[in-house]
Design the sequence.
């Protein structure tokens, strides 16, 4: 059985999706979603263990040898990302049960869990596949299910936000298809490893740089790098709480992984950073993303929106790490994928708790919440500390590697700007803390602490963000190995 | 110029005319019909270029189902497009740059129809030569679709399933009741209900011994439930003021 | 409704042929253009035509929305079921060669997955049509 | 057909840009989706152009009866792989379209308009 894990990781959640839809009862659909998420966690952890001990796993679907059939290919990089996605899925799903019951009408709950499972399997499918066109197919599964879940938000602006996301996401996906087509024309293959072998021979042809450009722009649209981030703030703000928590910690991370895969494994470091001078484009963009979006976040008065802008800034950190093109930089990027998933998951889940009791995440409605919902707000502070990058949190680990990578290249300016970004994070987190702890509640509406079924998953992520901040040896080791693997150019 | 090339060029010109007509018309009904024609002409072009399976699917889906869905939407949202208020300079620049990059990218490509195009060299000959021995299916597109790349087709099936899940989540059963937070509680309301109406409803509900929120039956496929057609939405637009 | 005799009679004649054509396209997919996807759309087209001519209410009695929805989900289950069968019989996921000897196994596998595709696509297309057609217009 | 050179690709790129322009320049949501549809159809055209082999025929093996191994020598077939990919892309296109249209219907119900300019936009 264990040899089939790469396929089962994706297809077990996928087959549970129609099962959840057919069951047509909230409880049964939830059970299916729960089983799918925890299965994915188990399978991805088992795969990561195996990849660490045995190296690359290749799984030929249908028994057809690649490049004729489709291959699933797991190395340290995507096993690591799969674990990140599955972890968040497994933590968010028990949270979703309570949260979704409040925010979504009962007759739509079975289909909601179906969409959730589809999104999970779509994201995992992108992560483990070794075939570029297959990436597109699973990208669409995850995107379409994400659209339908975001549109379930209670504010009617959720609909326009989703539409904007749908348009920008489809443009991104179509650009990716164009890029794949151009690569295919020059090489005749779709398999990633095969492409990596055959591309160097045709690098001089104008088609390949254009393919590279289209793939980069397409993926950047999906991962919401400044200035292509326009869809993200509204989508995160108006989606149901559980969906925001899941999406914010997984969807963009998987796109960052795709970027890494295309830059380093398929096109290779020499082409991406030598010929295409990628760092000249990505570094300024990511720095602007960090500073400008943090600034916008400071002036935001809706806390979910604030966190969404902060997410765009944090994506800037990940891309900044990649743009160094060094082992340390890519390690920082990879670490931040995992670390940011933990802390942003915790923060959005804390906001979900507020939503559950208060019905709004406007800053003005949160006055005095520090006393009324002590555990929720403590979780928010915990996640916030991580976002700032205080020592003993995961945020510190990411920033530490990032600053090291900058200093390694003697780039004091970038190191300084990363610090300024942290200070700005301090400002916008403090703004929330100030309102919640130091302002008196203006209304006398009774607000109780969120139920345990919401608090426990939130705190699991908060504690994890401290745990991996205090003892980062495992994650840092995996990320460093994965980064070295990427810079060597794949397997 | 061979007859095939002639047909190819004529169809491409037809497509360009149809496309530009779509941009120009302000009547959405006409635009939908033109889009259907666009699909149908592309289907013809696919046949010219030997992609019979693609042509079949494009004709059935692009010209058929897509048009039906678009018309169904127009019946619900009206078919007039407003005059744009600003001159679209930025989109024009984006489009010109994108198109320019694409033309630059194709400029060194192997010419159209070349058999020694690398695309036709590596994996494709294997399918053409060996797939019959391995699967005994003469239509290579079917054997690649359902066997060699069956995992992709699985994804494709999942994509259409995802679409129906999404559409049912959005559209099933008339204007949907919504969950909103009111006065410290989460309740289900009809869309367009104002806060005042809500307060009254809420009061009545609590007095009436907590008659639960009307969640509706569990019937995701009930988009066209005949009973559902009777009750009109209460005060649409109450929220719009 | 009564003055559309030509439409009604025409549809009654056409619909069986459309269905048979769908079957032909489905089973002839191995030898000519066509296959599960196209056949599913053609089957759905027959129902859409029926609904357009005889009214949505009648169409719903022939094929309730719930049935279309179940078809959509069952097709995915069938498709993945064929994939799992490969694992159960000792091959890879989606491996048809273990279903039967040589190309016969491939044939069984292809028939299985095409069945899944046609079921899903038919269900999805009909459900989409019902979802859009069953909605009332809200005027501003 | 080699005489056509790159004309075919360039014509297809023009078509793609027509769709892309409709998608990003128009404020009407239905028009945007029609633009998206044209954009995607044109990408399919591009792939199919890549697959065409001059003098070739559709990839349905002719002499299937007696093992088509000799087919490569005698009959020239167009490349089947892009066709397979584009079948998937068409399906993805209609899935996106249907979801987009259902959003348009809901937006009309919630905002009373499907013009982008008239929906008060929450900035950025």
Sequence:
């Amino acid at each position: 059985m264990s040899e089939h894990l790469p396929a089962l990781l994706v297809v077990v959640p996928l087959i549970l999706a129609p099962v959840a839809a057919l069951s047509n009862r909230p409880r049964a659909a939830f059970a299916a979603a729960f089983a799918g998420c925890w299965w994915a966690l188990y399978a991805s952890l088992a795969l990561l263990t195996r990849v660490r001990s045995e190296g690359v796993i290749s799984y030929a679907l249908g028994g057809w040898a690649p490049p004729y059939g489709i291959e699933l290919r797991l190395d340290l990089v995507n096993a690591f990302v799969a674990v990140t996605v599955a972890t968040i899925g497994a933590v968010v799903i028990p949270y979703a049960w309570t949260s979704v019951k409040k925010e979504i009408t009962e007759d739509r709950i079975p289909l909601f869990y179906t969409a959730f499972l589809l999104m999970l399997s779509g994201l995992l499918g992108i992560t483990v596949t070794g075939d570029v066109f297959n990436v597109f197919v699973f990208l669409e599964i995850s995107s379409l299910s994400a659209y339908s879940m975001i549109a379930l938000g209670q504010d009617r602006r959720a609909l326009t936000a989703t539409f904007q996301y749908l348009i920008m996401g489809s443009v991104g996906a179509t650009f990716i298809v164009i890029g794949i087509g151009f690569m295919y024309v020059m090489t005749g293959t779709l398999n990633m490893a095969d492409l990596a072998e055959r591309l160097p021979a045709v690098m001089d042809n104008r088609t390949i740089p254009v393919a590279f450009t289209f793939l980069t722009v397409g993926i950047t649209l999906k991962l919401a790098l400044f200035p292509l981030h326009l869809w993200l703030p509204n989508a995160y703000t108006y989606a149901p709480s559980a969906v925001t928590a899941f999406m914010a910690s997984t969807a963009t991370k998987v796109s960052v992984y795709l970027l890494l895969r295309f830059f380093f494994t398929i096109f290779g470091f020499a082409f991406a950073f030598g010929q295409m001078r990628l760092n000249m484009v990505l570094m300024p963009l990511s720095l602007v993303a960090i500073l400008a979006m943090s600034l916008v976040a400071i002036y935001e008065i809706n806390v979910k929106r604030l966190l969404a802008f902060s997410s765009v800034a944090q994506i800037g950190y990940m891309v900044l790490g990649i743009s160094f093109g060094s082992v340390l930089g890519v390690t920082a990027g990879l670490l931040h994928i995992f670390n940011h998933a933990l802390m942003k998951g915790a923060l959005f889940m804390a906001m979900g708790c507020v939503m559950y009791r208060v019905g709004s995440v406007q800053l003005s409605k949160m006055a005095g919440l520090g006393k009324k919902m002590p555990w929720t707000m403590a979780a928010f502070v915990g996640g916030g500390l991580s976002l700032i990058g205080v020592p003993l949190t995961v945020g510190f680990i990411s920033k530490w590697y990032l600053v090291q990578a900058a200093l390694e290249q003697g780039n004091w300016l970038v190191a300084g700007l990363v610090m300024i970004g942290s200070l700005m994070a301090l400002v916008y987190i403090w703004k929330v803390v100030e309102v919640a702890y130091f302002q008196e509640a203006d209304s006398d509406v009774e607000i109780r602490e969120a139920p345990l079924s919401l608090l426990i998953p939130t705190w699991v992520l908060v504690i994890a963000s401290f745990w991996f901040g205090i003892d980062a040896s495992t994650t840092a080791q995996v990320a460093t190995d994965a980064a070295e693997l990427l810079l060597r150019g794949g397997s | 110029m061979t007859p095939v090339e002639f047909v190819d060029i004529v169809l491409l010109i037809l497509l360009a005319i149809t496309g530009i007509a779509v941009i120009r018309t302000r009547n959405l009904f006409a635009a939908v019909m033109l889009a259907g024609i666009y699909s149908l002409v592309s289907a013809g072009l696919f046949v010219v270029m030997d992609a019979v399976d693609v042509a079949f699917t494009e004709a059935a889906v692009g010209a058929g189902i897509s048009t039906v869905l678009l018309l169904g939407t127009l019946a619900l949202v009206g078919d007039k497009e407003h005059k744009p208020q600003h001159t679209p300079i930025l989109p024009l620049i984006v489009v010109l740059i994108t198109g320019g990059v694409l033309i630059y990218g194709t400029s060194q490509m192997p010419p159209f129809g070349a058999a020694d195009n690398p695309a036709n060299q590596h994996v494709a000959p294997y399918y053409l030569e060996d797939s019959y021995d391995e699967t005994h299916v003469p239509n290579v597109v079917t054997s690649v679709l359902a066997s060699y790349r069956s995992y992709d087709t699985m994804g494709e099936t999942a994509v259409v399933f995802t679409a129906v899940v999404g559409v049912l989540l959005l559209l099933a059963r008339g204007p949907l009741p919504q969950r909103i937070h009111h006065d410290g509680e989460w309740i289900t309301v009809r869309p367009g209900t104002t806060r005042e109406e809500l307060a009254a409803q809420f009061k009545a509900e609590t007095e009436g011994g907590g008659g639960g929120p009307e969640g509706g039956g569990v019937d995701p496929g009930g988009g066209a439930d005949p009973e559902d057609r009777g009750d009109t939405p209460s005060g649409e637009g109450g929220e719009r003021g | 409704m009564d003055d559309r005799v030509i439409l009604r009679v025409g549809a009654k004649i056409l619909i069986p042929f459309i269905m048979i054509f769908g079957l032909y396209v489905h089973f002839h997919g191995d030898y000519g253009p066509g296959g599960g996807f196209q056949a599913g759309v053609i089957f759905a087209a027959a129902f859409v035509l029926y609904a357009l001519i005889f009214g949505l209410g009648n169409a719903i009695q022939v094929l309730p929305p719930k049935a279309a929805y179940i078809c959509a989900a069952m097709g995915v289950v069938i498709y993945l079921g064929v994939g799992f069968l490969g694992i159960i019989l000792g091959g890879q996921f989606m491996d048809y060669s273990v279903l039967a000897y040589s190309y016969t196994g491939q044939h069984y596998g292809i028939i299985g997955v095409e069945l899944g595709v046609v079921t899903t696509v038919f269900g999805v297309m009909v459900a989409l049509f019902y979802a859009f057609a069953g909605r009332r217009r809200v005027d501003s | 057909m080699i005489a056509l050179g790159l004309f075919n690709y360039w014509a297809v790129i023009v078509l793609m840009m027509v769709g892309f322009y409709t998608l990003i320049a128009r404020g009407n949501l239905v028009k945007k989706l029609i633009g998206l549809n044209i954009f995607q159809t044109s990408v399919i055209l591009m792939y199919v152009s890549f697959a065409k082999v001059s003098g070739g025929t559709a990839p349905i093996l002719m002499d299937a009866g007696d093992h088509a191994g000799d087919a490569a020598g005698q009959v020239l077939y167009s490349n089947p792989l892009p066709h397979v990919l584009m079948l998937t892309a068409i399906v993805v296109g209609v899935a996106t379209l249907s979801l987009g249209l259902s959003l348009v219907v809901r937006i009309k119900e919630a905002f009373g308009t499907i013009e982008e300019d008239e929906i008060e936009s929450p900035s950025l």
